[in-house]
């Protein structure tokens, strides 16, 4: 009895509030991850699109709506239709003008711009003052396949900013954090660049007779970054 009463109270509470479809009346509604929509909700969406009317929760009077719907998904909807997980009539109703966005692994040239955008967006939140990564880091990011596409790249950059204690993010740190990234070419590249960086530090220290301030200035890095690299490459001086 209590469950029934609670259900009635819930219906009465929300039946006077417009839902997303009603709020979008006369405009455009974007539905992300449409492939995750339950079969029950697919029926309701199909009715709204075909008949141009909806019902509020607990309502008995239809409400006319005129909306344009844009949907997105990373699922294979055709395969879901074949398996019975997605209604074929809704699929054909939505599939009027499909736009296929290629995965990030097929447009690696976009990675630098995306990195810049995410660093600008997240930098203030995590007090990160650098607007891009060094070339070595970018080359490692370019070797990864990014199965989660742009969302994975953004989340990865945010994770980097959270755990990194300085503005100097290295390619080795990237390799350690990227999931299942055992690309031999990428690791060879990092090892080669690390050896070159170590040699350059040693040469500059020799030229400056071990003066850390001048060495850091000639290398174009801060003293703190220089000390981090001295420790990393086990350079005494």
UniProtKB/TrEMBL annotation:
<dbReference type="InterPro" id="IPR025944">
    <property type="entry name" value="Sigma_54_int_dom_CS"/>
</dbReference>
<keyword id="KW-0067">ATP-binding</keyword>
<dbReference type="GO" id="GO:0006355">
    <property type="term" value="P:regulation of DNA-templated transcription"/>
</dbReference>
<keyword id="KW-0805">Transcription regulation</keyword>
<dbReference type="Pfam" id="PF00158">
    <property type="entry name" value="Sigma54_activat"/>
</dbReference>
<dbReference type="InterPro" id="IPR009057">
    <property type="entry name" value="Homeodomain-like_sf"/>
</dbReference>
<dbReference type="Pfam" id="PF02954">
    <property type="entry name" value="HTH_8"/>
</dbReference>
<dbReference type="GO" id="GO:0043565">
    <property type="term" value="F:sequence-specific DNA binding"/>
</dbReference>
<dbReference type="InterPro" id="IPR002078">
    <property type="entry name" value="Sigma_54_int"/>
</dbReference>
<dbReference type="InterPro" id="IPR058031">
    <property type="entry name" value="AAA_lid_NorR"/>
</dbReference>
<keyword id="KW-0238">DNA-binding</keyword>
<dbReference type="Pfam" id="PF25601">
    <property type="entry name" value="AAA_lid_14"/>
</dbReference>
<dbReference type="GO" id="GO:0005524">
    <property type="term" value="F:ATP binding"/>
</dbReference>
<dbReference type="InterPro" id="IPR027417">
    <property type="entry name" value="P-loop_NTPase"/>
</dbReference>
<protein>
    <submittedName>
        <fullName>Regulatory Fis family protein</fullName>
    </submittedName>
</protein>
<keyword id="KW-0804">Transcription</keyword>
<dbReference type="InterPro" id="IPR002197">
    <property type="entry name" value="HTH_Fis"/>
</dbReference>
<keyword id="KW-0547">Nucleotide-binding</keyword>
<dbReference type="InterPro" id="IPR025943">
    <property type="entry name" value="Sigma_54_int_dom_ATP-bd_2"/>
</dbReference>
<feature type="domain" description="Sigma-54 factor interaction">
    <location>
        <begin position="1"/>
        <end position="162"/>
    </location>
</feature>
């Amino acid at each position: 009895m209590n469950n029934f009463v609670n259900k009635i109270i819930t219906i009465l509470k929300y039946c006077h509030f417009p839902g997303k479809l009603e709020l979008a009346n006369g405009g455009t509604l974007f539905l992300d991850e449409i492939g995750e929509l339950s079969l029950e909700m697919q029926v309701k969406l199909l009715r709204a699109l075909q008949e141009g009317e909806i019902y509020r929760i607990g309502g008995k009077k239809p409400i006319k709506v005129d909306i344009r719907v844009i949907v997105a998904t990373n699922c294979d909807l055709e395969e879901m239709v074949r398996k019975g997980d997605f209604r074929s009539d809704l699929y054909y109703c939505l599939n009027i003008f499909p736009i296929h966005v290629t995965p990030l692994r097929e447009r690696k040239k976009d990675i630098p711009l995306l990195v810049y955008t995410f660093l600008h967006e997240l930098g203030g939140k995590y007090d990160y003052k650098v607007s891009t990564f060094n070339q070595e880091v970018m080359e490692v990011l370019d070797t990864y396949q990014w199965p989660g596409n742009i969302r994975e790249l953004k989340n990865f950059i945010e994770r980097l900013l959270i755990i990194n204690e300085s503005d100097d993010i290295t390619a080795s740190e990237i390799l350690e954090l990227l999931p299942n990234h055992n690309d031999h070419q990428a690791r060879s590249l990092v090892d080669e660049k690390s050896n070159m960086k170590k040699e350059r530090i040693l040469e500059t220290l020799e030229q400056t007779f071990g003066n850390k301030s001048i060495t850091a200035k000639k290398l174009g890095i801060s003293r703190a970054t220089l000390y981090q690299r001295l420790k990393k490459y086990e350079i005494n001086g």
